[in-house]
Amino acid sequence: MASMRVVQVPRPKGPLELVSRPVPDPGSGAVRIRVEACGICHSDMFTKEGLWPGIQYPRVPGHEIAGVIDALGPAVPGWAVGDRVGVGWHGGHCGYCDSCRRGDFLTCQIAPQIPGMTYDGGYAEYAIIPSVALARIPADLPAVDAAPLMCAGITMFNSLRHSGARPGDLVAVLGLGGLGHLGVQFAARMGFKTVAIARGPDKGPLATRLGAHHYIDSQAGDPAAALVKLGGAKVILATVTSGSAMQAVLGGLGIDGKLFVLGGAPDPLTVVPLSLLGHRLSITGWPSGTSIDSQDTLAFSILSDVRPMTEVFPLERAAEAYERMLSGKARFRVVITPH
Ligand SMILES: [Zn+2]
Ligand SMILES: [Zn+2]
Prior knowledge:
By secondary structure, this protein is of the alpha/beta class. It is 26% helix and 25% strand. The chain contains ten helices and 15 strands. It has helices at residues 44-48, 98-101, 143-161, 180-189, 204-210, 223-229, 243-250, 273-277, 291-304, 318-327; strands at residues 3-8, 17-22, 30-40, 65-72, 84-87, 126-130, 135-136, 170-174, 193-198, 214-217, 233-238, 253-261, 282-285, 310-314, 333-337. Strand 1 and strand 2 form a beta hairpin. It starts with a strand and ends with a strand. Bound molecules: zinc ion (2 copies).
């Protein structure tokens, strides 16, 4: 039997360990992907640290997968061996709960599937994936670029296109890390007046290079006041992992402004109720999207030249790559390449 290398978490809080396993065959409705690249997402921490209920161990993490279909299971219409495909957070759904019957697969209540959590993900040479979770990768997009777009990219692209902002509106991106460096590119390419907000003066040139029209150094003054001076933001994409940093920009929302919470911050976001009232402000969350949203993200990225900046590690250095992601020092998404 053919074998493959995977990196698994043996138990909650256990190490990322390289092991050999038999290459699995796809069951009904699923495909086998030869993984060419897998992004490391901050949410992989749920698997690594045992923070998600119901994960069965050992488990192979990874939900930013890009590769090629290598084998088809029975009952997989519409896909062929050799197709280039990506998989993100949406890894499948039950198809019969109330959410699914409304076509809202991402909020499936019975059996929401997430690669790397409910089944083995992309820290591996091969992965078995339900065909409903597949997105087509455009021919000109390298796998290493496609992988981070499957979670970080889609979260930015899909929240923005559902934000209600129209071309020319002021859109601010709070944070210039793995999510934010993509958010700025998408916002600028979608035709928004784009403002990047980050800490320190040194990130200004990067913001400009990514397409931002304005840069606000949040340490140099009040970032909310700076946004108001620019006219007030229609949308703020909050990609940071700090509730207090989000709070600091709330006052920068303009009329009907919306703060999108896209980074999981452990500390609370405190809001004075009266401050939301007069200008009809709102605060909302946004969790990535489904496989067709991923496909749209990839297509738009090729169309308008959006690319992640990546640091690439081979599979056997996954533990080191994960630590690099956790350190917050990576510029900007860490990707592992299994082959
Ligand atoms: Zn993710
Ligand atoms: Zn469902």
